[in-house]
Amino acid sequence: MSEAHQVGREHGESRGRFVIRRGGEEAELTYSVTTPALVIADHTGVPDSFRGTGAGLALVQALVAAARAEGFKIVPLCPFVKAQSLKHPEWADVFAG
């Protein structure tokens, strides 16, 4: 099952995250900014209540969209982000390596 998600972004100088809030819980994808041109996707956390909703994929899609809009490359240290990058070859332009 997939549903539309409202993905927010919290961005700081050296760290940031994409987040989906629902029912008092949060799903998140965190990242570290190494340079303006390189971001490391380091963790994706999705509560059990979000499982099967496409929340994790929506978070990765938001990261990919930001990379394209802002011109940075992604290092997929997080296993989930790495797996999604391999499932979506059309995103190869934004993944480093």
Structure description:
With 97 residues, the protein is an alpha+beta fold. Helices cover 26% and strands 36% of the residues. It is built from 2 helices and 5 strands, in the order E-E-E-E-H-E-H. The protein has helices at 55-70, 79-87; strands at 8-11, 15-22, 25-35, 38-45, 73-76. It has a 5-stranded mixed beta sheet. Strand 2 (15-22) and strand 3 (25-35) form a beta hairpin. The longest helix has 16 residues, at 55-70. The chain starts with 7 loop residues before the first strand and ends in a 10-residue tail after the last helix. The mean pLDDT is 94.
Keywords:
5-stranded mixed beta sheet; single chain; 97 residues; alpha+beta; 2 helices
Task: Summarize the structure in short.
26% of the residues lie in helices and 36% in strands. It has helices at residues 55-70, 79-87; strands spanning 8-11, 15-22, 25-35, 38-45, 73-76.
Distance between the termini: 32 Å
Largest sheet: 5 strands, mixed
Broad structural category: alpha+beta
Helices and strands, in N-to-C order? Answer: EEEEHEH
